[in-house]
Amino acid sequence: MVEKQEKDDSYSHILKYTGLFGGVQGLNILVGVVRNKLVAMILGPDGMGLMSLFNSTIKLVSDSTNFGIPMSAVKNVSEAYNTENNDQLNEAISLIRSWSLITALLGMVVCIVLSPWLSDWTFTWGNHTLHFVLLSPVIALIAITGGETAILKGARQLRRLAVVSVYNVILALVCSVPIYYFFGQSGIVPSFIILALVQCLLTISYSYRLFKPSSSFSRVNIRRGEGMIRLGIAFVLAGILGSGAEFLVRTFLNHTGQLYVVGLYNAGYVMTMTYAGMVFSAMETDYFPRLSGISQLGPQLNQTVNHQIEVSLLLVSPIIVFFMVALPVLLPLLYSGKFLPVLSMMKVAAIAMYFRALTLPVEYIALSRGDSHGYLFLETVYDLAFALLVIVGYQQWGLFGTGIGLAIAGIINLVVVYFFARWKYQYRISNTVRLYTLILLPLGIVTCLVTHLLTGVSYWVVGFLLFLVSAAISVQILHSKSNLWAVLVQRVERKLHLNHKEDRNG
Prior knowledge:
Largest sheet: none
Order of helices and strands: HHHHHHHHHHHHHHHHHHH
Distance between the termini: 40 Å
Number of strands: 0
Shape: globular
Helix content: over 70%
């Protein structure tokens, strides 16, 4: 009876696991914020722009050469893990580690061979060929780390993954900041190498404790991975499209503007899409497996998707409103006063997060059905819209226009995804989703307008009231839809009761 109640209480389930994984993600972001703040103060917009260009290029090469193993390998390990057959599990792990080493070598060689072209494509000044040659081991280390992370995911070692994730961001802070402080922009390349090495060694140390080192490069073993590689091709192509679109935008900004423009845009993009999008990163860990477990299209799948959208909207709405209102304080706090020119872009771009909350759960239907073609189609449409609209937006209105481009790209993506899901997967949006959208989205749009038009005391008073309204709506609905609040109260009361007993006995 209890099992059925927990299974049927979708709101409680989603909130429970969003809170669990969101806590880890929030801690990671908090440490990352401190690191970004210190690095921004040391390097300034130019240095942040240089880091962004190197990072975008590394990601592009990595996504192009890893054969999708960090994603596709999870399925292989998970299937072997479910059989409770140690031999089969060890074979799957050996296969993944072998292919990870192959892709690591491939990625490093590709980076070295293409380094002259990467330098020309990325930069308009100087010769950075040597920098990309020196960065080639980073590609290899990322590939190995991705394989070991996939093993931990497939073996359901989520607690260990959380610990590794927290340690990685802490070590990134401890290792990189001193390098930038003493060497400035000259420390960017060494910092990338050191961080990749530290993260790889840390992940390996946890993985190898559970599963002994093993690999085999025999022809039979390598050929066993063909199915995994074919599955991973969809993820590779999607990664190339996404990284390529980001690379194109940043390269365009670098060529038409200046390096500091890239740094400003990157700061705005990271804060808006990463920090404000913490809810989405948290929910994916639980939502995707649940969706994949539904065997047929129909009411159950529709209900699962719609409930995920509803909770995502309710959680993200007050976060976005608070984010837009608090940006004049958050931006200099997290970076520095030099980044204030990107303020207007971020306020408009934040609207795109509403569309992301509406779209992302629906996009996962394609992956849960194993529809790689459908997934690639949706990714292609969004990436093309993103790159085109951000570039056109910058040409027309500068950095503010990039925010408009991001928001419009979100709308286009929403329309395409919903029509495609309705046609291909018989998905039907619920009336509840429509209702929450009609209530919460206008609040976000009004907040965006208020933050652009008002100044002084009226800005903060009206902005704070809008946040209270958004938060009150979300809390009330979540309270009525779940039993988590009652459970929380019971736990607090139980804790207080125990403390009271201890005081009396003491």
